[in-house]
TrEMBL record:
It is found in: Cytoplasm. GO terms for molecular function: identical protein binding; RNA binding; tRNA (5-carboxymethylaminomethyluridine(34)-2'-O)-methyltransferase activity; tRNA (cytidine(34)-2'-O)-methyltransferase activity. The keyword Transferase applies. S-adenosyl-L-methionine binds at residues 80, 105, 126. Belongs to the class IV-like SAM-binding methyltransferase superfamily. RNA methyltransferase TrmH family. TrmL subfamily. It comes from Secundilactobacillus oryzae JCM 18671. Residues 4-147 form the tRNA/rRNA methyltransferase SpoU type domain. Its EC number is 2.1.1.207. This is Putative tRNA (cytidine(34)-2'-O)-methyltransferase. PANTHER family: TRNA (CYTIDINE(34)-2'-O)-METHYLTRANSFERASE (PTHR42971). Pfam families: SpoU_methylase. Signal peptide: none annotated. Keywords: Cytoplasm, Methyltransferase, S-adenosyl-L-methionine, Transferase, tRNA processing. It catalyses: cytidine(34) in tRNA + S-adenosyl-L-methionine = 2'-O-methylcytidine(34) in tRNA + S-adenosyl-L-homocysteine + H(+); 5-carboxymethylaminomethyluridine(34) in tRNA(Leu) + S-adenosyl-L-methionine = 5-carboxymethylaminomethyl-2'-O-methyluridine(34) in tRNA(Leu) + S-adenosyl-L-homocysteine + H(+).
Amino acid sequence: MTNHIVLFEPLMPANTGNIARTCAGTDTVLDLIEPLGFSIDDKHMKRAGLDYWDKVKIKIHQNLPAFVDSIPENGKLFLVSKFANQSYVDPDYANEANDYYFLFGKETTGLPEPFMRMHPEKAIRIPQDDSNIRALNLSNSAAIVIYEALRQQNFNHLEQTHLYDNDKLK
């Protein structure tokens, strides 16, 4: 089982850098769908990702159809959108035979509407009060969704760090 955070035509290097850092810390693949609004070598992107770039598994896709074609038969695609009816906590992300792909839209326009209309059953949303904000921050949204998947997967092979000796806490 492999988890993927997929960014459709990301524009902001800071968001992508923060998401890359989350990917490094969760052993999640970062798929980027071109065109990108920045260079991967951009100093702002490196600053956001700090020194974790060598720990991130990055795949670049020429366009949305090329990305879709790259999904293996065992891949489960989820479209993360505020326009979805299903909550992000509803699907089962724990089948070890599957790879999970969480596709997030461009910061300014989201995912292409025709693509969303073709796959409404794959759409998930993070509940939010739409009267107060247009959308949650992309990097925050990616973290929320990937940690729900990891929770359902019992934090699949992530090491636990213990800051304190548990015997001293009793």
